[in-house]
Prior knowledge:
Blueprint lengths: L5 H25 L9 H19 L5 H24 L1 H7 L4 E5 L2 E2 L1 H7 L3 H10 L8 E6 L5 E5 L25
Antiparallel strand pairs: 1-2, 1-3, 3-4
Helix pairs in contact: 1-2, 1-3, 2-3, 3-4
Amino acid sequence: MWFDEWSGVVRVLLVGSAAYVTVVAVLRLSGKRTLTKLNAFDLVVTVALGSTLATILLSSDVAWTEGAVALGLLALLQAVVAWLTVRWPGLRTVVTSRPTLVLRNGEPVRDRMREVRVGISEIRQAVRASGAGDLADVAAVVLESDGSLSVIPAEKYGAGSALEGIAGADDVTRGAKA
């Protein structure tokens, strides 16, 4: 239970070291997207990478080569999906969620908040973190596909081109209140 044999420990040390180097190489080759703020798709791939690494480390039934191929395959598939979603933007909505407007002209958009399960306290926290002290001073708050909340102050709204393609954003006005 506490100790079986030294060969298992040596295997974990050797294969674990090789697998660690492989994970670092795969992450470097797969690019910055793998390590940036994660949307749901990226999170699943990252968890799968971790699970694969754990399997390589702890299962003597999985050879290092098989594990390295699995790690490479996950990174390759993520790169292919990223490439496809850039070429065919409609596919992106299948893989990731779309940004959602949760506050418009200082007023919460309650139906969308319920839909994406965001509370007013979370919106207030994001507004405070942006440096604003009043919801009325905010033109828009958007729940991004990575789960973060973006705050656009009314005085920085400009033409609103950053909100292009977000449902309901066409109703946002230059001032915080319409």
